[in-house]
Automatic annotation (TrEMBL):
CDD domains per record: CAP_ED, HisKA
Keywords carried by this UniProt record: ATP-binding, Nucleotide-binding, Phosphoprotein
Species per Swiss-Prot/TrEMBL record: Ohtaekwangia kribbensis
Domain Histidine kinase: 284-464
Catalytic activity, as annotated: ATP + protein L-histidine = ADP + protein N-phospho-L-histidine
Domain of life: Bacteria
GO MF annotation list: ATP binding
EC number(s) recorded for this UniProt protein: 2.7.13.3
Domain Cyclic nucleotide-binding, residue spans: 12-131
PANTHER family: HISTIDINE KINASE, SENSOR HISTIDINE KINASE
Broad EC category: transferase
UniProt lineage: Bacteria, Pseudomonadati, Bacteroidota, Cytophagia, Cytophagales
Pfam families: cNMP_binding, HATPase_c
Protein name in UniProt: histidine kinase
């Protein structure tokens, strides 16, 4: 292959004097690779500038536990290490596409390149700037998608339990109501005065009302009461005694209560009346469970709406910080439970409402709280404290965790783009950079103080 002719075909080199390309052709080397050949792997030291002269290179980047395709370096594309670049190692894996020819210029020639060929150096620096901008944009998009994926997985998990409870309760209610006609025939045969009917109704209403404030029974207490009630119910000829006893125990009915009912009922009416009472309690319990499950779903949906602020235009407005923080905690509740973290909120009721971009600030809380939860993963007695206070014309919000801490040597780097302490594929190094940019947009400041067992991120934003 004529290297000089191939270099002239590189789009970035179109307007360069031929002398620069002659120098490149003399100093560099060319290698040929078969289709599917691995050219470099993740973490491999990068010591050369590379130009694809023929074929292409598929690039795969770590995401989670897999390698995900994110692009192809095609013919004429400049890759690898460039002058003034701080790149140390490959951030991806590269595989040859078809028969691929690669031009390489070792970094040992960069000093001469910068000194003797400033025009060529300028072209390469511009190429590096464009590459960093494109890569940053792609990383930001990936970071947002990863965050969205984690939130979506958490929401799906949170919604699954109450939605499953609604289905289960609805099926049970349907089965329960299917027995009503048979029980109704027994009820209409009851001979009771209006006073007796009123007493039975009052008994049911009082028990339903009282059950709300009762302390739940232990499993042993509940089992003992069920056995006692089942024996009592069996003695008066009731069917399904254990099922009925279980329902009665849920509403804190004991044999003393049933003895009182016996005094006002005819012996032949007792089974029908007790069945009707059990039916009323069962319906009440199932409806309450459906209501509670639906309420939990409503809370989640409301939190999502408030978190994304999707019904408002993106403009500054007065907002209560506690609401945004609580919505964020709701979004991350699955992770809090998974890591067995205790969350402590210390936000005063009279905290002033700053003028903020609500959705943007929710991104701040998400990144900081999510990072704290990652730090607490696998640690016993993990605690996350969220504290806010007014300081003159500013509001300070502190996100505090008792995780392992951030080494002092890197504390001044954690807000830099692409700097991350997380394993490859788990962190992109953009989360705290996004936090810093959003806080700067609010004319504020974010700082960190950390030592083992105590890390504090402090967000400072003006009230006005």
């Amino acid at each position: 292959m004529n290297i000089l002719a191939a270099l002239k075909e590189v789009p970035e080199f179109k307007n360069l004097a031929e002398s620069h390309l002659v120098w490149l052709s003399e100093k560099g080397t060319v290698s040929t690779h078969k289709d599917g050949e691995k050219l470099f792997v993740l973490g491999q030291p990068i010591e050369s500038m590379r130009i694809v002269l023929e074929g292409g290179v598929d690039l795969y980047r770590a995401q989670g536990n897999t390698m995900r395709y994110f692009g192809t370096a095609e013919k004429g594309e400049i890759t690898g290490l460039l002058p003034y670049s701080r790149m140390k190692a490959a951030g991806a894996e590269g595989t040859a596409v078809g028969e691929t020819i690669i031009y390489s210029l070792n970094k040992s020639h960069f000093v001469e390149l910068i000194r003797e060929h400033p025009e060529l150096t300028e072209v390469l620096v511009h190429t590096m700037t464009d590459r960093v901008r494109d890569f940053t944009h792609q990383q930001q998009q990936d970071d947002k998608m990863m965050a969205l994926g984690k939130l979506s997985a958490g929401l799906a998990h949170e919604l699954n339990n109450p939605s499953a409870a609604i289905v289960r309760c609805a099926q049970e209610l349907k089965r329960h109501l299917g027995n009503v006609p048979e029980k109704f025939k027994r009820v209409i045969n009851i001979r009771a005065t209006e006073d007796i009917v009123d007493q039975v109704n009052k008994f049911v209403d009082d028990k339903i009302t009282a059950a709300v404030n009762q302390k739940p029974l232990s499993l042993m207490e509940k089992s003992e009461r069920e056995d006692e009630l089942a024996d009592w119910l069996q003695n008066i000829g009731l069917e399904d005694t254990y099922e009925t006893a279980s329902i009665f125990v849920d509403f804190f009915i004991d044999t003393t209560d049933l003895d009182e009912l016996n005094k006002i009922l005819r012996e032949e009416d007792r089974p029908a009346v007790l069945n009707w009472i059990a039916q009323a309690f069962t319906t009440e319990r199932l409806v309450n469970e459906i209501e509670e499950a639906a309420r939990r779903i409503n809370v989640l949906v409301t939190s999502v709406k408030s978190y994304t602020h999707m019904d408002r235009a993106p403009e500054r407005e007065r907002a209560e910080l506690r609401s945004g923080i609580r919505n964020t905690v709701t979004m991350l509740n699955h992770k809090i439970r998974k890591n067995q973290v205790t969350v402590i909120e210390n936000i005063p009721d009279d905290l002033p409402q700053p003028c903020i971009y609500i959705s943007a600030m929710n991104q701040v809380w998400t990144n900081l709280i999510d990072n704290a939860l990652d730090a607490l993963e696998g640690r016993p007695n993990g605690t996350l404290e969220i504290k806010a206070e007014k300081d003159r014309e500013f509001i300070l919000v502190h996100i505090i965790d008792n995780g392992p801490g951030i080494p002092e040597a890197i504390q001044d780097k954690i807000f830099d783009s692409f700097f991350t302490t997380k394993p490859v594929g788990k962190g992109t190094g953009l989360g705290l950079e996004v936090v810093r940019q959003i806080i700067l947009q609010h004319n504020g400041k974010v700082t960190v103080k950390s030592q083992p067992g105590h890390t504090v991120f402090t967000v400072c934003i003006p009230i006005q």
